[in-house]
Design brief:
Layout lengths: L1 H17 L2 H6 L4 E7 L2 E6 L2 H20 L7 E6 L48 H12 L8 E5 L5 H15 L5 E5 H14 L3 H7 L3 E5 L8 H16 L3 E6 L11 H7 L3 E5 L4 H14 L6 H10 L4 H18 L5 H8 L12 H11 L4 H4 L6 H18 L3 H7 L6 H13 L4 H14 L2
Parallel strand pairs: 2-3, 4-7, 4-8, 5-6, 6-7
Antiparallel strand pairs: 1-2
Helix pairs in contact: 1-3, 4-5, 10-11, 10-12, 11-13, 14-16, 16-18, 17-18
């Protein structure tokens, strides 16, 4: 496999520049070259969504890249491969969020953990890949990787799924470790019950566990006594080198009502966010949900749904459920007409189609400059950063080509757009402030 992996690595290097980041992450990163027969190149994918879309969206660019790497007339063949994935793409996942092969009767919630939430059931995309990687590492090395791990983001983006997946993985692979999952509301109720009954097991439950996972931490904000008790619980566990995993709706530094010392504790480890799922990721979720139900859904219907519903995964699944239920009951496939008909009369959450000009206007307004300044030749910092951000959003939200982005922001050399995109893409992984700025602009685009 060495020759295949070496060639695929070279091809990926070219594709990273020539195709959209979401297609690269969702399709190319989830496939590999598995066989070379003369001019024939066999590319394997490991789930239906990738297999259906990689040939449709990437074949011409893959062929071009192969020609640049010594193949005069490459014949590219795409296959489904049900065998175990290679190390290069082992993080590719085959189940939809919140799905499992088990029946409800077989599932038992233990220690607050729902077995439905696993890493295998989590679809990875550019909006959550960093959070996924951090969560997976914590699950593999509790108390040795990131402690505490704080994951934050809006409603319905998969925070609960991810933190529970950590607990389920630890419970399965480290059976001697005690894992507790609770919400901040449940923690509050336990504290109130402790005050009322003086239950001596209260502190033992939370302070003698090996892994504490607490969800919706913002709920304790403003509850002085509850926060104080959680602060002491946090300190007790941290000093004993026990793993702490927390989820919230925003970065700890901006949760109103939390004391400074609590904000400091929550942010002292790895803090990482989950953002709105991009177009290709929404398509993947739709395909996988349909696949689990053994329902055929036409590609144009998938694209229509993904285009219409841009809020969050929970809302997307909420719209998809009645469509799949109708198909299941009537034993029919989901085509575009059926999907459009089912959406009629439902509350609309989809947004207007956005344009490059709207991105420029919103970005410029956010940073307090004029659109004309953003598109000027100025090289001062307060202009360059908004220009880079606007270029980044055009690439991620519209899948615009680099030449088109360059034209939109008044650049003659489109290769500078590649550099600015890579810079922002790198910086947002490290700079929380920049990541929050981009998320706020993105939300304004879809209001």
């Amino acid at each position: 496999m060495e020759a295949e992996q070496k060639l695929w690595g070279a091809v990926k290097g070219e594709l990273e520049i020539s195709i959209s980041p979401t297609n690269f992450n969702m399709l190319i990163n989830q496939s590999e070259i598995t066989e070379l027969n003369g001019e024939e190149v066999i590319i394997s994918s490991y789930n239906v969504f990738v297999h259906k879309n990689i040939e449709l969206k990437c074949k011409s660019e893959i062929t071009k890249a192969l020609k640049h790497n010594g193949y005069q007339n490459p014949v590219v063949r795409f296959v489904m491969n049900n065998k175990k994935k290679s190390t290069e793409i082992k993080r590719s996942r085959n189940k939809a969020p919140g799905t499992t092969d088990q029946t409800d009767d077989e599932l038992k919630i233990v220690g607050g953990l729902n077995p439905r939430y696993t890493f295998d059931g989590f679809i990875i995309g550019s909006s959550n890949d960093l959070a996924y990687a951090a969560a997976e590492r914590v699950a593999q090395q509790p108390s040795k990787a990131y402690n505490p791990l704080f994951i934050y983001g809006g409603v319905g983006l998969g925070k609960t799924h991810l933190v529970q997946a950590i607990g389920n993985h630890i419970r399965e692979n480290h059976p001697k470790l005690k894992v507790i999952y609770t919400t901040a509301e449940q923690f509050t109720n336990s504290y109130v019950n402790y005050i009322r009954t003086k239950d001596q097991n209260y502190h033992k439950k939370f302070r003698e566990t090996d892994v504490l996972i607490i969800d919706d931490i913002q709920f304790i904000a403003g509850k002085e006594k509850v926060e104080e008790d959680f602060f002491n619980t946090f300190n007790s566990l941290y000093l004993k080198n026990k793993q702490i995993v927390i989820a919230g709706d925003r970065h700890p530094s901006v949760i109103a009502g939390l004391t400074d010392r609590m904000q400091s504790r929550l942010g002292m480890g790895m803090t990482i966010d989950i953002t709105l799922p991009p177009y290709e990721m929404r398509m993947a979720i739709i395909q996988k949900k349909a696949e689990v139900k053994n329902i055929t859904i036409d590609q144009d219907a998938v694209e229509f749904l993904a285009e219409q519903i841009k809020t969050n995964i929970r809302e997307l699944e909420g719209f998809l459920t009645p469509i799949l239920a109708r198909c299941e009951i009537q034993n029919i496939k989901a085509d575009l007409d059926l999907v459009k008909g089912c959406l009629t009369g439902l509350k609309s959450t989809h947004t207007k189609h956005i344009t490059a000009r709207q991105i420029i206007t919103k970005t410029a307004g956010y940073y307090g400059i004029k659109p004309e300044e953003l598109c000027s030749s100025s090289r001062v910092k307060y202009i360059i950063t908004p220009r880079h951000v606007a270029s980044y959003l055009m690439r991620t939200e519209l899948n615009e080509s680099y030449p088109n982005i360059a034209k939109a922001v008044g650049r003659k050399d489109w290769t500078t757009i590649i550099s600015s995109f890579r810079k922002i893409d790198r910086d947002i992984k490290l700079d929380i402030s920049l990541r929050n700025q981009i998320n706020e602009i993105r939300e304004k685009l879809y209001v």
